Amino acid sequence: MKLSDRAIDIQASPIRKLMPFADAAKKKGIHIYHLNIGQPDIKTPQEMLNVYKNYHDKVLCYGPSQGLDVYRTNLVKYYKKHGIEIQKEDIIVTTAGSEAIIFAMLVTCNEGDEMIIPEPFYTNYNGFASMTGVKIMPLTTFAEDGFKLPSNEKIESLISSRTKAIMLCNPGNPTGTVYPEDDLNRISKIARQHDLFVISDEVYREFVYDGLSHTSILDIEGMEDRAIMVDSISKRYSACGARIGCFISRNKEIIASTMKFAQARLCPPTIDQLAANAAIDIEAEYFVDILKEYDKRRNIVFKQLKNIDDVVCVMPNGAFYVIAKLPIKDAEDFAKWMLEEYSFENETVMFAPAQGFYATPELGKSEVRIAYVLNENDLLKAMKIFRKGLEEYKELM
Amino acid sequence: MKLSDRAIDIQASPIRKLMPFADAAKKKGIHIYHLNIGQPDIKTPQEMLNVYKNYHDKVLCYGPSQGLDVYRTNLVKYYKKHGIEIQKEDIIVTTAGSEAIIFAMLVTCNEGDEMIIPEPFYTNYNGFASMTGVKIMPLTTFAEDGFKLPSNEKIESLISSRTKAIMLCNPGNPTGTVYPEDDLNRISKIARQHDLFVISDEVYREFVYDGLSHTSILDIEGMEDRAIMVDSISKRYSACGARIGCFISRNKEIIASTMKFAQARLCPPTIDQLAANAAIDIEAEYFVDILKEYDKRRNIVFKQLKNIDDVVCVMPNGAFYVIAKLPIKDAEDFAKWMLEEYSFENETVMFAPAQGFYATPELGKSEVRIAYVLNENDLLKAMKIFRKGLEEYKELM
Questions:
Q1: Residues A60, B266: C-beta atoms closer than 8 Å
Q2: What DSSP element (H or E) covers A245?
Q3: Are B38 and B79 within one domain?
Q4: B4 domain-assigned
Q5: Number of domains in chain A
Q6: Residues B270 and B325 in one domain
């Protein structure tokens, strides 16, 4: 009795696989600051929560496979506010961004086809690639220059007859990198020259700092038929548990085929979609305040990291993560050690070893991803413990 | 720009693909009785709906990838009531039964591996097979004998070096067939002899009539390590929109590998899981009444079908579907015609053409699946319209 190769080969989530060590630490009475997962502490908008409270239907029914009509109609308005012109028919509501990424991989690639993705990338792309048989061709970017998009030559050197798409995460998880419009135009030109699709994961659209603005792949010239945009409400409205995302393309063939995948799984959760719908009318003020809060956190984490000797880290412009290269050999060992062996005043810190965010073997072994999703005070305490732990760990090695 | 083969080849859902015709009919003011989809009209238990009303957390967080601990703990009790002894660690909560089936296909089969499934089967298995690259080897069963499980010889004739699993739906959608324990023992023996997994989709466990009892694959000897059971609350609690299911196996390797698929997509919806959890303590009375109601509906539909000349149909013992073989050539054409051309007193009926429930080409072309999910009065009216429509359609052909 042998399981499938994909079941054996798929990586364990670097964000979640250390959870048993965290649970053991908690059982010992140790408090853990969770910087390992992008679970914000920001309150979910009351407008959303009220939808659950006020749900009055007697039968909790299936919705349409493409998502509730009222929600898709409202999403068009949401994107319009962000300068993205789409129609309701371009949208398929998904069970979180995860499902939208799986659909994007399924619709563009056969098993064994290749997708170019700048690394480090959102680690679960590896898992989705294992599930769909897509081969990720990593386009390595570097902590030292803030994970900038490499030259056209570098990108084109990865293109083969099996390359079907380039996938971007913009703003980037785990890098925090925000691609300037010029970079997206470069990608667009390469995609057209080599007949590729471009998949853009834009779930951190709202989280852009330093007065920069975010450009969607859907706003880039020449991308009319080639672009698939993946989105999610998890981070935007601090509603990770609602599991609502969407898949957007202006290419009618892509939508028609993806609808068949969507029909097979029937529909995304119904009440959660209604909640997501209620969030769309939230005042822009909500985001102004949240952005201020995250900006403050970003500055705290970055400053604390800079205070530690030999840490390499460039200030990220977006999302709520930062990758730090540490002066150690094995960040996963360090992360485990922090949970199993270390505590300061009965507290410790959990973060994600970054190797799982790379596809190239051995890369990222000394890097960690820190999610700055805690309030100012907690972050300050967590970063202090992180620094102390790192110093002690270095001495032990 | 070419989409993937799987995107082009995947079938459109026969349950949902006629929806545009239904929408057009509705726009013309025609009322449609929906017998096409397993969306029960039974009220979702108030205990579940209260959970949405009373949700008090300020942040709608991710849950664990394996599902909420409280829910998995309670599920163990639920299965115990049904004579199925499992532990919390054997359960991964999924986003509906759909995701559990996808996981079962991914964990047992590589692309191109084969799975034997009695046909007609739940049509979306075809879609999930396209998504995962699994080749379905259909084991044809027949309306004339109530879709009985074929002989061991027939089953074994389908086994090749690439066969990895046998999948059953018990009670069956769309057949309503309930497999007696002897049949499951036969499957178990074949699975052991040929080193196969057995996947059992048991989402209609509660819907068994005529004093028969349902046997789970997990209760069959020799199935300790080989069985994967797929479940869902959609039908049990009339909560299709909650999208909560589960994947169960006592094989620790299967659970460990499936957890990696589960981690990639992070978690199933949080509040919906809490609602599912609240349903577990529902009195057995709830099901007694519902079963009575469905039994009544089953009898109505069956009697009405028997009243139509030349319809082949055996009384089903379970679920809430019946397959009827009609004296026409093309049931999909008939289904479309009922929506586009026909109405009686401004009403018509929608049902699912059954061809999409088969994998063997041309099979099921004259069959339809009727879901008896409406109340007695509506069902009587719907079946009257069905009979009248069929008579008129036959004359036109």
A1: no
A2: strand A244-248
A3: no
A4: no
A5: 2
A6: no
Tokens matching residue A96: 């979180």
A162 and A201 assigned to the same domain:
yes
Question: What residues of chain A lie within 8 A of the CB of B59, using their CB?
Answer: 40-44, 238
Please, what is the Cα angle at A12 between A200 and A370, to 5 degrees? Answer: 65
Q: Which residues lie below 8 Å from residue B200, measured CB to CB, with a gap of 6+?
A: B167, B168, B169, B170, B216, B217, B218, B227, B228, B229, B230
List the one residue out of A252, A258, A187, A175 whose CA is nearest residue A217.
Answer: A187
For residues A192 and A75, state if they share a domain. Answer: yes
Among A249, A279, A309, the domain-final residue is A279
Distance to chain A for B392, nearest Cα, Å: 31
Which residue shows structure tokens 């609690």?
B237
Is the same domain home to A25 and A162? no
Examine the domain organization and report whether B290 and B243 are in the same domain. Answer: no
In this complex, the residue of A195, A241, A265 whose CB is nearest that of residue B269 is A241
Domain of residue A18, CATH code:
3.90.1150.10
- pLDDT tens by residue, chain A, 397 residues: 899 999 999 998 877 779 899 999 999 999 999 999 888 889 999 999 999 999 999 999 999 999 999 999 999 999 999 999 999 999 999 999 999 999 999 999 999 999 999 999 999 999 999 999 999 999 999 999 999 999 999 999 999 999 999 999 999 999 999 999 999 999 999 999 999 999 999 999 999 999 999 999 999 999 989 999 999 999 999 999 999 999 999 999 999 999 999 999 999 999 999 999 999 988 777 888 999 999 999 999 999 999 999 999 999 999 999 999 999 999 999 999 999 999 999 999 999 999 999 999 999 999 999 999 999 999 999 999 999 999 999 999 8
Kindly state whether residue B50 falls inside one of the protein's structural domains: yes
Q: What is the ipTM of this complex?
A: 0.95
Cβ-Cβ contacts under 8 Å between A and B: the total is 245
Q: Which domain holds residue A361?
A: 11-43+285-396
Q: Is residue B6 part of a domain?
A: no
A247 with A344, same domain: the answer is no
* Chain A residues whose beta carbon lies within 8 Å of the beta carbon of residue B269: 95, 241-243, 269, 272
Q: Which residue of B has its CA nearest to A97?
A: B265
The answer to whether the Cβ–Cβ distance between B106 and A241 falls below 8 Å is no
Q: A251 to chain B: which residues are within 8 Å by CB?
A: 1
CB contact under 8 A, B41 and A59: yes
Q: Which of A110, A263, A277, A373 to mutate to test the interface with B (most CBs of B within 10 A)?
A: A263
Claim to verify: residue B84 and residue B186 sit in the same structural domain: yes
Find the closest chain B residue to A98 by CA distance.
B265
How many DSSP H helices and E strands does chain B contain?
Answer: 13, 12
Q: Which of B248, B279, B310 is the endpoint of a domain?
A: B279
Q: Is the peptide bond before B120 cis (omega within 30 degrees of 0)?
A: yes
In a domain, B1, yes or no: no
CATH of the domain at A226: 3.40.640.10
Calpha distance B335→B342 (Å, rounded)? 10
Strand partners, A352: A369
Which residues of chain A have a CB within 8 Å of the CB of B95?
95, 243, 265, 269
